[in-house]
Amino acid sequence: RLASPLFVKYFDKLAGIAYWGATSMDTTLTIIVLYSGKEYAIIAVFIGIVLTILVPVISTIILKFV
Asked: Whole-model pTM?
């Protein structure tokens, strides 16, 4: 929780969402809304869903080549 305001201040409001990754859609959504703003809540939910879906796909692809 301490790094989120720093990412928003020094980079961008989207950096605060990217920092949390897949948990941005549920667990850390309140922190994102607090520091980035309400208008970024939909983006955070969308990014969280996309990352949650992509993890098993990318993991499977990587494990095929290992």
From this structure: 0.81
